[in-house]
Automatic annotation (TrEMBL):
Superkingdom to which the source organism belongs: Eukaryota
Alphabetized GO MF terms: GTP binding
InterPro entries the UniProt entry points to: GTP-bd (IPR006073), P-loop_NTPase (IPR027417)
Protein name: G domain-containing protein
Coiled-coil ranges per UniProt: none
Start and end residues of each G domain: 4-112
Length: 208
């Protein structure tokens, strides 16, 4: 029943924080600095109830999409991949992945076109692996966190993430940093429900 799940996204989206939420013993390094923190992919074990387990992969974050240049090979304009994209691709291709979780920040002003462009890149890079979205940075969202998605459909459309994408809406801040600890528990549960629904559909959803 062991599976491989990679957490991916643009640098700073909360990739490593999400790993720590799923695997509380992981202690994957996180940082508020402007410079990137995770420079190599690394896997951590997540043991769920009922003997399910996962290798959860913390990965290098993607940068802004590279510049356009004309490729004489394909005879069209293409974006030059940045070194972090190449590094991520190399890491992911070596793993036998069952699921990709793409993090985007949902806080006002943080979600940009580049998040959608990178989503498109990952989709074409890893086409056959299921790809879901986790919206992070939602601790200030007033309604139930799940409501973020339906409230922001026009923004999702604008950045190019299909509204039908399977998703969870969360905060990945540690419980100790939240005034309302329920937000942490709800976020964790929402994540587990999303992941279980794809990896082990027969084990039943714990919520919704
Ligand atoms: N407010 C808020 N901050 C968050 C959330 N998730 C992560 N952060 C903060 O954002 C910063 C970056 O988080 P990381 O988990 O290191 O992000 P990352 O995507 O792994 O970034 P790199 O490894 O640098 O590419 C840290 O200071 C986190 O505490 C969230 O849901 N809400
Ligand atoms: Mg990181």
């Amino acid at each position: 029943m062991s599976k491989n799940v990679a957490i991916i996204g643009q640098t700073g989206a909360g990739i490593s924080s999400l790993v720590n939420m799923l695997c509380p013993d992981a202690n994957a390094p996180t940082s508020p600095n402007a410079t990137r923190c995770t420079k190599e992919g690394k896997e951590y074990l997540w043991i769920l109830e009922d003997e399910c387990s996962c290798q959860v992969h913390d990965t290098v974050g993607l940068g802004e999409p590279g510049r356009w240049h004309f490729s004489f090979k394909s005879f069209k304009f293409v974006r030059k991949p940045d070194t972090w994209q190449l590094k991520l691709e190399e890491y992911l291709k070596k793993k036998d992945l069952d699921l990709l979780i793409y993090c985007i920040p949902g806080d006002r002003g943080l979600l940009k076109k580049s998040h959608g462009q990178n989503y498109g890149k990952v989709k074409s890079m890893m086409g056959s692996v299921p790809l879901v979205v986790v919206v992070t940075h939602l601790e200030k969202f007033k309604d139930p966190l799940d409501g973020w998605w339906s409230t922001n459909l026009s923004i999702l459309r604008n950045v190019g993430i299909p509204e039908t994408t399977k998703h969870a809406c969360v905060t990945t801040l540690p419980k100790k940093d939240l005034e309302n600890g329920d937000l942490y528990d709800n976020s964790r549960e929402g994540l587990e429900t999303l992941i279980r629904g794809i990896l082990w559909p027969s084990t039943g959803h714990r919520r919704r």
